[in-house]
User: Fold L-ribulose-5-phosphate 4-epimerase from Planomonospora corallina.
Amino acid sequence: MTSSVSSSVTSSVAGAVAALRESVCRLHAELVRYGLVAWTAGNVSGRVPGADLFVIKPSGVSYDDLSPESIVVCDLDGALVDGELAPSSDTAAHAYVYRHLPQVGGVVHTHSTYASAWAARGEAIPCVLTAMADEFGGPIPVGPFALIGNDDIGRGIVATLDGHRSPAVLMRNHGVFTIGADPRAAVKAAVMCEDVARTVHVARQLGEPLPIAPADIDRLYDRYQNVYGQH
Amino acid sequence: MTSSVSSSVTSSVAGAVAALRESVCRLHAELVRYGLVAWTAGNVSGRVPGADLFVIKPSGVSYDDLSPESIVVCDLDGALVDGELAPSSDTAAHAYVYRHLPQVGGVVHTHSTYASAWAARGEAIPCVLTAMADEFGGPIPVGPFALIGNDDIGRGIVATLDGHRSPAVLMRNHGVFTIGADPRAAVKAAVMCEDVARTVHVARQLGEPLPIAPADIDRLYDRYQNVYGQH
Amino acid sequence: MTSSVSSSVTSSVAGAVAALRESVCRLHAELVRYGLVAWTAGNVSGRVPGADLFVIKPSGVSYDDLSPESIVVCDLDGALVDGELAPSSDTAAHAYVYRHLPQVGGVVHTHSTYASAWAARGEAIPCVLTAMADEFGGPIPVGPFALIGNDDIGRGIVATLDGHRSPAVLMRNHGVFTIGADPRAAVKAAVMCEDVARTVHVARQLGEPLPIAPADIDRLYDRYQNVYGQH
Amino acid sequence: MTSSVSSSVTSSVAGAVAALRESVCRLHAELVRYGLVAWTAGNVSGRVPGADLFVIKPSGVSYDDLSPESIVVCDLDGALVDGELAPSSDTAAHAYVYRHLPQVGGVVHTHSTYASAWAARGEAIPCVLTAMADEFGGPIPVGPFALIGNDDIGRGIVATLDGHRSPAVLMRNHGVFTIGADPRAAVKAAVMCEDVARTVHVARQLGEPLPIAPADIDRLYDRYQNVYGQH
Assistant:
């Protein structure tokens, strides 16, 4: 299943692939640092700029053992284009997202505890924190139950995100997928998703969180997307 | 937006600024160590002794990437006076506190999980632990819901802290602000706030914590503020 | 109680023992990393290929102080065959499993928090997460209450696992035992057991998790056991 | 308040003091590692063999800054005998325990989250885990509410532990004190106390843990105290 980079991709793309393998490899360490993953259950991918390709974690490899070289390259149908190892078993879902959402440059999947707990009940996370309004612009929605092995998960992700500002979707009885303009933004969304999933869970354990007015959610979202950070 | 230290501040102040940038930079690591912050959501500031200035975290910069040089200097209206980066998006709130509470030398803001959960319900944390009587001298109060972008958050902090001994205030649906005589004291208050927010939450999950008599809270607070530590 | 390896085991077995002591020693660090053990409460063992022997943690030794040499060798009755230290107090339970389940090459025991909480109520963990279907193929069952000191624990483990696909069993009021084809697989099962025990607990705190259809559990289990990872 | 070791203690005791300062200093790192302490709230002490003295943490010093030299020496009335710093504000409670329980060689105090939550409700932790039977031989009892500043806390600890096998006592609205034959045993009791406080809390969140028969608790306790570990 392996082929050399030189035969599959042009040399200008080869540089982009090398840089992306490096950054996607490093971003998996953020999933570990924030406690979003146990053993090997969670993965980051990134679209190769200027090519119908993305890079993704190999299947079942421990985070300690990941190296840039171990990150595999797939085409947008999820077929292996370059790499020594079999791609993540979630590759088809990532590929579906890249095929159908051209603005997406990074995808992350985890089974992080609190997000997955909401997903197990099939319940959207209500937007009751300003940090959640900032990052998600509203509730974090729930997608359908879907089996692995075909396009069902990818289709569920794309259909559910349509009509929400949230870059995160809880897949029923499963876990969370997040998207971003690049892999780092998708990792940030995964970190923030678990953070707000936990805080809202804890809030609800002892009563009902107060609502935030929809107009205020809009104001917070607009400001955060346009003013926050370094420009 | 950048100007050189030498033109903006006198040389005696320049030394104070350099020392404060160093300590405020280092104190952000305590927010990380105690798990009070996810990604870049949380910041520490410190008033420059002998000047109408304070230093604060730059906006959206990862804690790993903070250096003393990256910490920015602002005047008490929150305008950037020195530094290469845009100040924290919470700068206006910090500035308001420094303008209105002259005894305050440090301010911290986090979205720490348990404190934010109480804030999401708009519920003050009752003083049912001796450690809470020691540090907070009573309940940790809740301030109003306020949007970012003007003085509303700062005004809410100052108005709520007035009449409480607590150096921490829960801002509704948002998170926590703490104050101290210096940035280290404000960080300590943020750490202890989350610690007691969590313990009281856990206690209440299985019943009602026993009250501490107000006179005992007073005795504990007086002793801790005057006897504890090295003098 | 000590005897030299050369007199007890053949030289071809000696190499297998040395390699296994090394890997079993290292695998204890995974119990620490995932927070499954406090102080010295938890142990990993591994069957020696080609011999009626297994290696196991010595009793009451801190994880920091474990070295490959400190790992002891026992026969399948749990008697010490090689090593300077007394074997784990759970050795009889491990030995029983190796005697009665020839396909098992590794056993792990922990008191990990969430798994032990289900065990304290004597309640099986329902299979409401796809990750749980993948790894456990159904609910994680509960075995009987059993005292340490004879074969009762081992007998309870083996009797309970019979008729389940789960490599984990919750022992009532006690903790969890997991099995695997090798020690690493048993450690993975212990990590995943705590992960799903926690997620399902959190899900149930605020309502009822949605069920997964038994046929879907079968499909997920079959796929994960045969397709996941590198082959 | 400082005097030199040579004038206060004989030279044979001086060696014991030096060794104890070293080990008590190191044991504080275990409180940090197991998450039992926030900021400076928690302390370890150890009785000096062959002298009416004990060593203890200085007051308000960060765990990062502790060194063997910073650990102070007190007499059994809690008066400073040797050291540059003021002793822990909990010194009177430790001293009371050493005066009244001659078999005790180590004392630990923390505000660890789950133990303190039971203490805030004034509720003993029921013995529903075999690990709890092993280490505590029954429930972990609750002592009275007591203010700091005189012998009330020490008296409450000693009176409550009398008639229990537990080396841990929950002090109402406060935290936990543990005792042991040496400081390491007291630290172990503090670690195990929080571990079982958390597991039993989690178990009770979703129902009622099953009881363990008193005769089985006795059997487990007797075995663990006499057989476990290296002898």
Remarks:
- Chain A has one domain: 11-226.
- Chain A touches chain B through 31 residues (CB under 8 Å).
- Helices of chain A lie at 5-8, 11-33, 91-100, 113-121, 130-136, 152-161, 183-205, 214-227.
- Confidence is low (pLDDT under 50) at residues 1-6 of chain A.
